[in-house]
Specification:
Elements: H1 9-20, H2 27-38, H3 59-68, H4 74-91, H5 108-124, E1 128-131, E2 146-151, H6 160-171, E3 177-182, E4 186-191, H7 198-210, H8 214-222, E5 225-231, H9 233-245, E6 282-288, H10 292-299, E7 313-315, H11 319-322, E8 331-332, H12 336-342, E9 347-356, E10 361-365, E11 385-388, E12 405-415, H13 446-454
Parallel strand pairs: 1-5
Antiparallel strand pairs: 2-4, 2-5, 3-4, 6-9, 7-11, 8-9, 9-12, 10-11
Helix pairs in contact: 1-2, 5-9
């Protein structure tokens, strides 16, 4: 073990890089391994990824450290030796692993929350992923970083070791400390990055969160993980309780379209609704991917990655503009789960209806789709995009009382044929429209859509 010989992390990193090139771990990761070894933490892995050194604290290693570092505290070395002896005893079968299965039943509010997440998983085949808000706040300490998985599997068929090895491989992390497992739907609660201070815990969790591409989420879905959480577990429980206590009024699940008008009073009646007159808060729309439709409502609204007008949350006062496939993915309904959820429809789009206070609108700007025609007759093309101040938060949580955006509804458009065939979508074909799924998620080959137009096919919105 190179660390036992007191070889510095930078030298170890250079040696690994000379052998493995870009696949070698970064210097900061090597420094972390080095620190853990010196503290006596055991690192074992059957598959050393990217040339990762396998470190085991043994009496021989301790003697090497003692010989190379005479100033090392003797009590630390004795503690390391005790850990080594305990681990060797476990390998010899003299001591069994502690039982981590909880005997407590899952609270009803928590179970109700997971049932909603499971519906999301059955439709998208990916877990719903959430992160605690304090990860993005510098004024809150993160003393304990938790990683939670909820799995749609019978506990009798669950193998903890196989599961962890797959997690290590998919997420490229080297150790989690499982604290408790709960039956029902299997819930695994683990501690991560426990040797780091609050600042570095947050850095590592943010890096892990940003690394969760659709491909990685699909791999997690193959493990039957339907919910994943990172951060302060107290924040998760608080969110579950608040979600459970939110009252939804079915009488407001109405049809919002031409000919469907429900407000008969004055728009500015002088009544205060909250601490400001209701009409001060502007209505805007935010198109989203199909898989994000429900996830956003549970986890928050992420700022735009395509930041033409600057950093912030992108929205528009025009639902017509928000419905373009660059912003609102066109999803063709294929699976039985999707069909049962959206009844007789063949295509669906999600758009979030939001409210924002005018003081938080940083910029009102032109459209960015190179449209050669009027997009929405009610709104000028030069004032159709809004950039909303996110106050430096990568995720805006709708539970946050200081959020600059308040989500007031999830607008769902279900059609019998492709929505590009609707009259209000004709402007799509006089603007940017492509087959690159990273740009425009059409849900159909563009040539096939053009052929539908040539054949005179139409589309109608389904209101049931």
């Amino acid at each position: 073990m190179r660390a036992a010989l007191n070889i510095q992390p930078r030298v170890i990193h250079e040696e690994l890089y000379s052998v493995h090139g870009d696949q070698a771990p970064c210097l900061r990761t090597v420094e972390r391994w080095f620190q853990r070894f010196r503290e006596g933490q055991v690192e074992l892995d059957d598959e050393a990824r990217s040339g990762r050194p396998i470190a085991v604290t043994t009496p021989d290693n301790i003697e090497q450290v003692r010989g190379n570092s005479p100033d090392v505290d003797e009590h630390v070395l004795q503690d390391q030796g005790s850990r080594s002896k305990e681990i060797n005893n476990r390998r010899g079968g003299e001591e069994e692993e502690p039982n981590k299965w909880s005997t407590e039943s899952m609270p009803s509010k928590e179970k109700a929350y997971y049932m909603k997440c499971k519906k999301y998983y059955h439709i998208t085949e990916m877990p719903l992923i959430s992160i605690s808000d304090d990860i993005f706040r510098d004024d809150i300490e993160l003393n304990l970083a938790s990683l939670v998985f909820v799995i749609d599997e019978d506990d009798n068929a669950f193998d903890e070791k196989i599961f962890l090895n797959r997690i290590y491989s998919i997420l490229n992390i080297d150790h989690v400390d499982i604290k408790i497992m709960q039956k029902g739907c299997i819930k695994v609660v683990a501690e991560i990055f426990k040797n780091f201070d609050s600042k570095f815990k947050k850095i590592e969790i943010k890096a892990l969160y940003k690394s969760l591409t659709d491909e990685i989420q699909k791999e997690l879905g193959k493990l039957k993980i339907f919910f994943m959480f990172m951060g302060d577990i107290k924040a998760l429980y608080e969110k579950q309780i608040s979600r459970y206590e939110v009252t939804l009024y079915p009488e407001w699940n109405l049809l919002y379209a031409i000919g469907h008008t429900y407000w008969t009073g004055a728009l500015q009646d002088g009544r205060d609704r909250g601490n400001q007159p209701y009409y001060w808060w502007c209505i805007c729309y935010h198109g989203t991917k199909f898989s994000h439709g429900l996830s956003i409502l549970l986890s928050g609204l992420a700022p735009a990655s395509r930041a033409q007008h600057g950093e912030g949350i992108y929205a528009t006062p025009s639902i017509i503009y928000a419905s373009h496939p660059r912003y609102a993915e066109v999803k063709k309904l294929a699976s039985s789960n999707e069909k049962s959820f959206f009844k007789n429809g063949n295509y669906v789009q999600f758009v979030l209806q939001c409210r924002v206070h005018p003081k938080d609108i940083k910029k009102i700007a032109y459209e960015t789709l190179d449209a050669s025609t009027t997009i929405d007759s009610n709104i000028d093309n030069n004032a159709i995009e809004w950039v909303i101040d996110s106050k430096g938060k990568p995720v805006v949580d709708f539970n946050d009382p200081d959020s600059t955006v308040v989500c007031t509804g999830l607008m769902i458009r279900v059609t019998d044929n492709h929505p590009g065939l609707l009259p209000e979508s004709e402007w799509w074909f006089k603007s940017h429209l492509c087959t690159n799924e990273r740009c425009c998620q059409l849900g159909i080959n563009l040539e096939d859509l053009n052929e539908k137009i040539l054949n005179g096919e139409k589309s109608i919105i389904l209101y049931e």
